[in-house]
Amino acid sequence: MKEIIEVELKTHKIDFSKCETSLLATGHFSDAKGLDKLNAELNQKLGGAIEQVIKLGDFKGKAGTSAVVYGNDSIGAKRLLLVGLGEKKKATLDTVRKAAANAAKKSVELKAESLSLALHRALDGKLDLTAMGRAMAEGTYLGSYRYDEFVTESENGRLKSLNVEVIDSDKAKITKLNKGLASGIIIGKAQSYARTLTNRPANIINPEALAAEAKRVAKNTTGLACTVFDEKQMAAKGMGGVLAVGSGSASPPRFIVLKYTPAGKAAKGRPTIALVGKAITFDSGGISIKPADKMDEMKLDKTGGIAVLGTMKAAAELKLPLNILGIIPSAENLPSGTSYRPGDIITTFSGKTVEVLNTDAEGRMILCDGLAYAVKENCAVIIDIATLTGACKVALGKYMAGLMGNDEKLIKQLQTAAEESGEKVWPLPSGDEYAEEMKSKIADLKNTGSRWGGACNGAAFLRQFAGDAKWAHLDIAGVDLFESTTGYTTEGSSGFGVRLLTTYLMNIAK
């Protein structure tokens, strides 16, 4: 397997017009009355080329669009990339992030060896420079990412690396940008790592391979420790939910626990935060088998668990003063003579019993053991993340994750993190009326409710295993995948959750 594109990112104090680069990216708003100071200066040196592109209507500044203007002897850049920022009144950090992603994506397409970003200049004074530095870093990794590990031949090939710099002529601005860049690089790399791991097919990543990867990450990351329970250890502990789901596969299930402990006494006395992620390495639906169409995408059913792995990696590298537990129950859900069946009653790690009505409602069966484990470990806050229900995608489409929970403050904290990270969420209910739907007549619970409100029913089921902890649930079933190439990124795993959860943890650390 070949490596994904390596990105080197740094700041550089230099005059914009003197910067020698393959591609210099600047921003332009669709509702701008004229060119801003930087573009006006570059336009003059380019003999009015920028104004000409706009006048011809080839570039209107719409978000997600860009236009290339070729350089001359008056500037150091071989090409100037005008990146659309949309309407200025609507500009947010995600505008900057997506603009950087657009520029990085274009760089890869053009096989540009170097990219210089001056996108922050168009928003000078409107947004915090440190925050923009972080957003540009995250966007650079988002846009430059390509999943082609198994492509052995390519007509045109691609560059193995991309050198990116955020430039400004003002030393004070560079200092602020660099501060944000440092954290943005860690988060961007973690998200790319999560995308790669999630994109890998089930014949490469099964529960055992995922557990081995988690151990490797912990070994190479200061402050991280990893414990893995195999099927025998899970049986001894009574983790019936994970064992049931994994019972039909030749690849046995694993229960992965990552523990982050910061150096020194910075987190002494602070409560432990648990992140619980669903990692079904392939989901056929089990005996309640799915339709064949698009079943290949079910390799992405491990997105939640891998988002937790990526977040734990980022949190440790950021040296956050927090106690964090990352819990990743992992199984492969396949039909066979040993599979769990509709009608079975499973005793879970909490001691609660569950009547199985549909083996394709397997995510909640493994998550309930993960949640109960977090409760047993006295975690004060528990956040789970999972590609749980198709119903959530029906409700919210492919633009936002569903957010449910039992604590309003925690929900608001996650909403704030979503706004800052650009990974959007929308609150949905999961109260007692939905919990009633999940009661069984022959066990404590059943694993499916009625056809209505499926996302809310699923969350209400999980709520029964959160104990007295502050708990939130992220249903990412609609946002785990970029279905097609956009102006910002290519198709495949989105790595959703890494930016969101890391931002939440960074805010808590403050």
Give the tags.
2 domains, 15 helices, six-stranded mixed sheet, 510 residues, Leucine Aminopeptidase, subunit E, domain 1, elongated, alpha/beta, Aminopeptidase
By CATH's scheme, which homologous superfamily of the largest domain applies? Zn peptidases
Oligomeric category: single chain
The span between the termini is 40 Å
What general form does the structure show?
A: elongated
Strand percentage, roughly? 15-25%
Supply the CATH architecture of the largest domain: 3-Layer(aba) Sandwich
List the domain count as a whole number. Answer: 2
Please state the structural category.
Answer: alpha/beta
Q: pLDDT average, as an integer?
A: 96
State the CATH topology of the largest domain.
Aminopeptidase
Number of helices: 15
Radius of gyration, in Å, reads 24 Å
Low-confidence stretches: none
- Strand tally, please? 20
Characterize the main sheet. Answer: 9 strands, mixed
Determine the fraction of residues in helical runs and give it as a percent range: 25-40%
The CATH top-level class label of the largest domain:
Alpha Beta
